[in-house]
Structure formats: structure tokens, C-alpha cells
Please model this.
Amino acid sequence: MPNLLYFVETVSPRVRGAWFTELDRDTNSRAHVIGLIRTGEITPIKVLEVNEDEGRVRDVTAEICGEAMEPALNSDDWYDRSKARMQLNKWDHARDMHKHEAV
Model:
């Protein structure tokens, strides 16, 4: 099993700029990052997956955000689906705004 680490670049509506969220190395897992996104503790701009064994880094932002919203997107409740789509749009907008600020 590969040794994977996750790094999450995040933003806050109250603070200008972006930073990487500190994650404990012992609990740093895909499931942990998905849980933080689901609970709203972090608003991801970019999620990087680092495979320490292979020395490889992948941008897994779309995958992770999709997995975080999957239960709501697949819900029978129209309101849950609508809320999940709005959240995904909010994350896309935050990423777009961050790209424009960086220029």
C-alpha cells in the first residue's frame, strides 16, 4: 500500500489570501480530508496527493470535492442535491478568485 500524504490549500471569506491547512501526519488520509470538507472546516482551492514511495504529486481536487459531496449529490432530496451543487460552485468560485489574485 502506497504511503500517501494530502495537502489542502484553502481560503477563508474572512481572511484575504490562501494557505495550506495543517494536517496531522498520523491522521493525514483521504477520508480525513473528505471529512473536513464535508463538515465545512476547510474550503479547498487545491488538494494535492503526495505518494512518498514513488515521489509523485497529483492534483486530486476534483476527485476529493466530488467524493465529499457524493452523499448529498446522490440524495433523493432535491434540497440536499441543490445545496451540494451550490457548495461545489462556491469552491470553484473560490479557486477562480484565488487564481486572479495570484496574477
User: Anything to note?
Assistant: Strands lie at 4-12, 15-21, 44-51, 56-59. The first strand starts at residue 4 and ends at 12. The CA atoms of residues 9 and 46 lie 5 Å apart. DSSP finds three helices and four strands in the chain.
